[in-house]
Every structure is written in C-alpha cells, then in structure tokens.
Amino acid sequence: xxxxxxxxxxxxxxxxxxxxxxxxxxxxxxxxxxxxxxxxxxxxxxxxxxxxxxxxxxxxxxxxxxxxxxxxxxxxxxxxxxxxxxxxxxxxxxxxxxxxxxxxxxxxxxxxxxxxxxxxxxxxxxxxxxxxxxxxxxxxxxxxxxxxxxxxxxxxxxxxxxxxxxxxxxxxxxxxxxxx
Length: 180
Fold this sequence. Notes:
Order of helices and strands: EHEHEHHEHEHHH
Structural class: alpha/beta
Shape: globular
Largest sheet: 5 strands, parallel
Helix content: 40-55%
Strand order of the largest sheet: 3-2-1-4-5
Distance between the termini: 46 Å
C-alpha cells in the first residue's frame, strides 16, 4: 500500500504514524487545512508539523498557502453542516492529490480525534474512494488517543486548544456559548 495521509496537525499525526509504521504501511503526509484560523494559528500548526516531519524523516506534501477564503466560501450560509463540509473539502483535495501523485490509498489523522465525526468522514471518504478509484484506508485511531497526547506532551509539541476554524475558535473562547 502506498498511502497519502491527510494530516490536520502534528500531535494528531503521532499515533497514526506509529500504527502505520508498525503495520509496515508506506505513507506520505499531506498537510492541507484551509479551515485553520487565524493566520498565526495556521503558521504555528504548519511549523510544528514541519519540525516533527523533519525530526522523524517523514515524506511530506504541504499546501502552505493560507486557504481561509476557500474554507469560508464552502461554509458560509451552511454553518450547521460546517464540519462535514470541512471534512469533504479536505478529503476531496487529498484524493485529488493522491490521484495526481500515483498513490493507491488515502487516510487521515482526523480519524485520531475524539472530537471528529468518524461516520461522516468514513461515509464521504468511501464515496470519494469510488469516484477516484482508490482505497480509503479506514482505521479508528482513537484507541491511541491517550498515547498520542502523552507523546505530544513529551515532545513539547504545540497543542492547539480548538479544532481550527473560526467557528470552533469562538465556541472554545466565547463564554456565552458555553452556557447554551
């Protein structure tokens, strides 16, 4: 298997990378996250990912341009479905890149997070798998949540306090939303 692994951030990469190495699956990391806001947060996550990839000698493909406009254009006026639309945006691009670079399978570190909707990610990725004629490698990486958190703290990696988008940032810090 020659897998393109969509990576949301460095801490979420640790456990899936460990599993893939253990299972002897060749993978390249793909950083594409137009949802991350603000720009300083995007840079912090990108820089942390680059540093971890350099230290661990991971193969990488990086979309380093700040894609906030792309994200907002796909979400605005559809905020109630923002997470599934965000997953679709990132996974579709991952399948496109995988197809153009000769990969035969795709997966994502989004499958590591306890905060992501696995059923939604799996369903849309299975559909993209059919459309692009390549395998979607589904693995429930959440079982390694504690191990990944421990390792990221041990390595002193930057650990973000919210998913990434402007909406999740507001939900994290706006005290009036916490009361609802």
